[in-house]
Amino acid sequence: MSKIDEIKQTVETGKSKLIEGLVADALAEGLDPTKILNSMIDAMAVIGEKFQKAEVFVPEMLVAARTMKKGVEVLKPKLAAGASTSLGKCIIGTVHGDLHDIGKNLVALMIESAGFEVIDLGVDVTAETFLNSIKANPDVKVVALSCLLTTTMPSLKEIAAAVKGSPVKSFKLIIGGAPITQDFANQVGADGFTTDAAGAAQLAKKLAS
Amino acid sequence: MIIIGEKINGSIPSMAKAIAEKNEDYIRDLAKKQSEAGATFIDVCASVSEDIELETLKWLINLVQDVTDTPISVDSPSATICAKAIEFCKKPGLVNSVSMEGDKVDQVFPLIANTGWECVALLSDDTGIPKSAEKRLQVFDALMKKADQYKIAPKRLHIDPLVEMLCTSEDGIAKIVETMTKIKAQYPDIHLTGGASNISFNLPARKFVNRAFIILSMSAGLDSAILDPLNTEMIGLIYATEALLGKDDFCIEYINAFRAGLFDKK
């Protein structure tokens, strides 16, 4: 097996203890850092697809993403500035009034693993905070809103309207969370909606390219 | 064990469909079945958009009251809705839920101060779900000050220490066990509750995790749970665990429940 394949498989199987050594070896052998990064991104895409087919479970997705993160840390100094975020920026947060973070964190992790630079604004994020972040990052490609309660759906609707009214027009809006449906996504004028984190990463990739 | 029957909840797809189609018989039937299976409360959660939540709750509560006297657990993420829906109930039940977030407690506690209503209280506040047991206990202390202020006796409270999914937990349920043990030591009369199924999110064969969780938590003081009373395997395990914990003299409750066909029905 080639080093690249070995790195890919190590991320896929979530063997975080091995990844740093493998990436360091690959770099020592003179392999292209961007190629190494892409092999890890590919591994995460495979995990995402497997998750959607119910072949792997969330914890397996988490350890894979953590493994990749560790690998990226070793790569970072070698990657040319900007090359580490091949797909652009994604701003993500849970909407105002809602304090749920587990699902949002998982989506952030998967989107980051797909090759985005993620700006995570946390939970209970107001329209104003989203707008300021968009203003500060006019090259943002994807804005992702999360909400976990039926009671905070109106808040999401409000924030979606505000975000869509931003003078910055470079980005697509995606939403998600337990009570969200395709119908609701259409209502608030979102560019996309998925039911799970792996789907969110695929969707972000599709919308940003 | 206090069993809060979970089946009338709009976040369950089959129930969402029944609510959307106004399928009254389906809802009445589930209320009746849960009551017959020994539910202490029947939880009613609309899980619809806020503008139609109150009318949906009223309709659901009346359907339940058509067929059973089992008290209602009024379930909404909005304290305002909970407070209004209390009025639809013929007898005192359970408010599900308040927390130290915003003014939820101040909306609900005064209404139930001099009544037989019980209340589920989550150990979260404006900062969200505290990460450590210590911080959760601080939220609990603040909650008990409020309960005292409104003269809500501890035995009318069901404290939910907020069980998070096992697959992302770093210490299994150690934090929850510590929180529950300390609360019970301080207030022996208080109830400890939780959702039986939160623990197993994102894991395969969830029923095993759910059952193991209930048994271990009962040993730490859990005496109330939101679960499916029609799940006879779980019900049997609960009766058995109560007997093992010395809460069932001569196993009479276990024997009676078996005889009533609540589990292991031939």
Characterize this entry briefly.
The complex is a heterodimer of chains A (209) and B (266). By secondary structure, chain A is α/β, with parallel strands linked by helices.
Overview of the molecule:
The complex is a heterodimer of chains A (209) and B (266). Chain A has two domains: 78 residues, Methyltransferase, Methionine Synthase (B12-binding Domains), Chain A, domain 1; 120 residues, Rossmann fold, CATH 3.40.50. Chain A is 54% helix and 11% strand. Chain A is built from nine helices and five strands. Chain A has a five-stranded parallel beta sheet, with helices on both faces. In chain A, helix 7 links the parallel strand 3 and strand 4. Chain A is globular. Chain B is α/β, with parallel strands linked by helices and 266 residues long. Chain B has one domain: Dihydropteroate synthase-like (TIM Barrel). In chain B, 45% of the residues lie in helices and 16% in strands. An eight-stranded parallel beta sheet of chain B has the order 7-6-5-4-3-2-1-8. In chain B, helix 3 links the parallel strand 2 and strand 3. The model of chain B has no long low-confidence stretch (mean pLDDT 96). The interface between A and B is medium-sized, with 17 and 22 residues.
CATH class of the largest domain in chain A: Alpha Beta
Secondary-structure-derived class of chain A: alpha/beta
Q: Regarding CATH, which class of chain B? A: Alpha Beta
Tell me the total number of β-strands of chain B: 8
Distance between the termini of chain A: 31 Å
| C-alpha-based Rg of chain A, rounded | 17 Å
Strand order of the largest sheet of chain A: 2-1-3-4-5
What coarse outline of chain B follows from CA principal-axis ratios?
globular
**What series of H and E elements makes up the topology of chain A?**
HHHHEHEHEHEHEH
Oligomer: heterodimer
When the domains of chain A are counted, the total is 2
GO molecular function, one term (chain B): methionine synthase activity
Keywords (chain B): Methyltransferase, Transferase
Organism (chain B): Treponema primitia (strain ATCC BAA-887 / DSM 12427 / ZAS-2)
Protein name (chain B): Methyl corrinoid protein
